[in-house]
Write a structure and sequence with these properties.
This protein is mainly α. It has three helices and no strands. The chain is elongated, with a radius of gyration of 20 Å.
Length: about 80
């Protein structure tokens, strides 16, 4: 079963409200802006979650060769594989 994501409604609403301070737009524009904010929030959230999963999977293995024991070529290959961002 896929993990579901729930927003902290107060944090999200306060975060959005703080970005609109001083901005003047119609109610219709506010909904569009809120949708853009939500899309940006979720994109950043899932990108960070994906990064954490990659980091966890790369550094939790105890059978993995240590960096100091790798040849330079092996180390460069490992860095290239890790460098997805």
């Amino acid at each position: 079963m896929a993990k579901r994501t729930f927003l902290d409604l107060d944090k999200f609403a306060l975060g959005f409200a703080s970005t609109t301070i001083g901005a003047e737009f119609t109610d219709q524009d506010m909904v569009k802006t809120a949708k853009k904010y939500l899309a940006a929030y979720l994109t950043a959230y899932y990108l960070a979650e994906n990064f954490n999963e990659i980091e966890r999977s790369n550094f939790e293995g105890s059978d993995e060769e240590k960096f100091e024991d790798m040849s330079f070529e092996k180390l460069m290959n490992k860095v290239n594989n890790l460098n997805k961002y």
